[in-house]
Amino acid sequence: VVACAIFAVSSYDYQSGGHLILWDLSLVLEFPPGTVILILSALLEQCNIIIKLGETQLSITFHSAGLFRWCHNGF
Asked: pLDDT tens for residues 51-70?
């Protein structure tokens, strides 16, 4: 199993919303904009807590398995 990276972007009050929930580990983590976390996404169910009205919270997830397949196939 390979880890994937989740990158938090946008502008939101990370202390009141946008927290990262890792259900299988019973963890709720503050997830400030600009933060990157590595998780085993194939094994861990995750989501984010809602944010305030008018705020925007985006995450970019980098699934490394696709990159390994891409390299393995000679691209």
From this structure: 999 999 999 988 877 777 77
The closest of 42, 64, 52 to 19, measured between CA atoms, is 52
Write down the domain spans for the chain. 4-72
Instruction: Give the bridge partners for 22, in sequence order.
Output: 27, 46
Non-local (6+) Cβ contacts of 62 within 8 A are 4, 5, 6, 7
pTM higher than the cut 0.85: no
Give the integer Cα–Cα distance in Å for 68 and 11. 32
Bridge partners of 46, per DSSP, are 22
CA distance linking residue 29 with residue 41, whole number of Å: 16
